[in-house]
């Protein structure tokens, strides 16, 4: 149903919406002496609590990802019943396993961050309590690090649950990258050896000319 042209239009619309939304939400933040940089407007606090973090950032992406994973699972069950080559069936099963594990990882990694942001928005910790403020910052750093894993975990999920992807990575890293590095190191060593061999010859020729 989706063409490349329609996909470009939709992507452009979402990018514009994200930029405008980020500017509007960022303008609601203010620097307070006791709490630091927090949302100062009560309307934006309610918006972040009841729509932005639980729906726009949390529930909506989870629902979309889960819907496509269910469609992928349904597609694989439909393919198994059809008379298709075994290789095609294996590839579709691997793709479905990759999508399902990606959705599970996405839900686990994003949910904790959204829950923390809702709590931190409504109950900011004052700097007048150093211990509680330090614990809050430590917790924020840990949860933010867990949330950032969501953007780097694709490679590891795919390499674990897809034998074909694993073989392709091994082919690229071992047979191509390693061979190029090995060839590059050997060529440098050969240049160094040739230069070392040339220097004695030049010194010998100079001594013969002096004689």
Automatic annotation (TrEMBL):
Keywords: Membrane, Transmembrane, Transmembrane helix. It comes from the Eukaryota. The chain crosses the membrane at residues 12-31, 51-76, 97-119, 139-161. SUPFAM superfamilies: Family A G protein-coupled receptor-like. This is G-protein coupled receptors family 1 profile domain-containing protein. The lineage of its organism: Eukaryota, Metazoa, Spiralia, Gnathifera, Rotifera.
């Amino acid at each position: 149903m989706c063409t490349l042209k329609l996909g470009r239009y939709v992507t452009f619309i979402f990018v514009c919406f994200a930029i405008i939304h980020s500017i509007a939400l960022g303008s609601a933040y203010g620097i307070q002496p006791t709490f630091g940089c927090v949302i100062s407007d009560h309307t934006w606090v309610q918006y972040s609590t009841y729509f932005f973090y639980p729906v726009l950032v949390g529930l909506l992406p989870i629902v979309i990802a889960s819907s496509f994973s269910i469609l992928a699972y349904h597609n694989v069950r439909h393919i198994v019943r059809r008379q298709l080559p075994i290789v095609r069936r294996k590839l579709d099963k691997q793709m479905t396993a990759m999508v399902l594990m990606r959705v599970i990882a996405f839900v686990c990694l994003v949910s904790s961050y959204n829950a923390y942001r809702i709590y931190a928005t409504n109950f900011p910790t004052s700097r007048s309590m150093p211990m509680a403020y330090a614990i809050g910052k430590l917790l924020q750093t840990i949860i933010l690090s867990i949330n950032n894993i969501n953007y780097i975990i694709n490679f590891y999920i795919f390499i674990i649950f897809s034998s074909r992807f694993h073989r392709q990575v091994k082919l690229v890293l071992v047979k191509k990258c390693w061979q190029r590095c090995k060839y590059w190191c050997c060529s440098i060593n050969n240049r160094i050896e040739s230069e070392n061999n040339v220097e004695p010859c030049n010194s010998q020729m100079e001594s013969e000319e002096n004689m």
